[in-house]
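Exercise 7.
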Amino acid sequence: MSGYETFTHDGKDFEIRTAQIGDRYCVKVFLNNKQVSPVYSVDIETHTDYFSRHQESLINDLKSIAKSDIEKGMYYKA
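Solution. The predicted structure, written as tokens, is:
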């Protein structure tokens, strides 16, 4: 599982990347190909259990949280 999606905020083009790293699904946000967010993650077992019960992806929730944090100005600006 890997992929990306882009969005623009305050005239800047951000990229939300998703990947499986070890036993976790991870979401990171990049600006100009540099990571500007913490890693948002959920372990595969928890995600699978949640999806089987609710038919909803926790990965989508992580992406929403990451995007919301960027929109609130909560990202590395160094």
